[in-house]
Amino acid sequence: MAITRASFAICLLLSLATIATADYYSPSSPPVYKSPTFPPPVYTPPVYKPTLSPPVYTKPTIPPPVYTPPVYNPTLPPPVYKKSPSYSPPPPPYVPKPTYTAPTKPYVPEILITAVDGIILCKNGYKTYPIQGAKAKIVCSEPGSYGKSKNEVVIYSDPTDSKGYFHVTLTDIIKDLLHCRVMLYTSPVETCNNPTNISKGLTGIPLSMYGYRYYADKNLKLFSVGPFYYTGPKAAPATPKY
To answer: Model pTM greater than 0.90?
Structure first.
């Protein structure tokens, strides 16, 4: 009987719950949303806290130091400092100095260079100018018997420069310069290629008639001759009038 009443009570509760749920979700009565209500804010003023005054720093006063001079005790003798003995290094061992002997140079006989220089010019009327490219020659011969010469040697100079200067070095074959003569050889200027006998440029000037200059630093013995002259073409001889 008790079980029947309990079962009946449970069924009744389930029925009520079903009815309540059916009414809540019924389409004829949709749910109404209500916004939540919040209470208005209450302003609480801040509590004023008084600020504390900053601490006052007091500099500590330090008394100045008091100097107490040391008390001299005359009973103690002053300290004695001993001087260290002076150090002298031992003398270096004796080493004899090497004797230097200069090497002996082999004997080289002094070579004397003999040269001849001069100037070759062109003279056309009143005009005189140097000839560039002209040459001179030196003829050396030893006189033989019956007035004949033997062992004749001819040496030609280098072409003259723009100032008409020529220079020639004599070879070692020539032993005696007393039998050497200097004369003109050739001129490249067609309008001035006739040798003249001024300063014996045509017949030859013996070197024995000229002195020489000796240059010790160059070991040079230099003969300077001339100046020698070329001239223009010779005019044809005029027909004699009778």
So the answer is: no
